[in-house]
Amino acid sequence: MAKRKTESDYVAAITELHQQRLEYPDSAAIIKKIDTQVRGWMRCVDIMIQVAQNEQIPWTAEMIGYPTEPMPSKKSTGFTQTGDYAGVVRTSDGDRHVPVLCERKSVQDAYGTLIVEENRARFYREIERFHADPRFDQMVVIVEGTLSDFLLYQPDFTGGTKIL
Known about the structure:
The protein is α/β, with parallel strands linked by helices. It has helices at about 5-25, 30-45, 60-65, 75, 105-115, 115-130, 145-150; strands spanning about 45-50, 70, 85-90, 95-105, 140-145, 155-160, 160-164. The chain is elongated and about 75 Å long. The N and C termini lie far apart (about 60 Å).
């Protein structure tokens, strides 16, 4: 019976293949081997998606494809909550954040964020918190709609009061 590879075995193999790829960057065989090893490593670790506690209609684990948990507070992490969704890889060496942070907006919310000065200022503060957080190096804003949906969006007006 073959010995089952551990998480550390996969890390060593991926590291070695990465060094080979630096020498042969166009090698399809090395790229395929890296892909296979990464998939094996992913079976050894747990991936959790942390969801901001103020999400009004959060994506579910079924929608994302990974288990979810509430995003921890600043009191427990030392970091102010940033973004709506953050991935965490749980390894034998401890938790590591996926360096990509996700901010989710409906078409209506995106319009209100970009057009209304107070909302835009709040969004800029969110971006500042992202830049200040060393766990992340990319922030992705997902607008749930098409470009046409956004460009054609017209907020409802009722009695002189606009609803965003």
